[in-house]
Amino acid sequence: xxxxxxxxxxxxxxxxxxxxxxxxxxxxxxxxxxxxxxxxxxxxxxxxxxxxxxxxxxxxxxxxxxxxxxxxxxxxxxxxxxxxxxxx
Length: 88
Prior knowledge:
With 88 residues, the chain is of the alpha+beta class. It has helices at 50-58, 65-73, and strands spanning 2-11, 14-23, 34-40, 45-48, 62-63.
């Protein structure tokens, strides 16, 4: 199963995160399938590759809670049919 989750980058106490598509059995810094976005919580900046995110969501990838919140704020889910993804 594939998940969309955060991968930590940056230096100590100044974390930034890459949003990646990754196998659920991989660890946080493990090998990812594809980088689909970037999130900086300190500067409140977000970059999303929407076409790549939609590609993985249509094929059954599940976002983690944090990534789901980021995608909701960016209104990515408005481009999907609500029946295609579970948003518990």
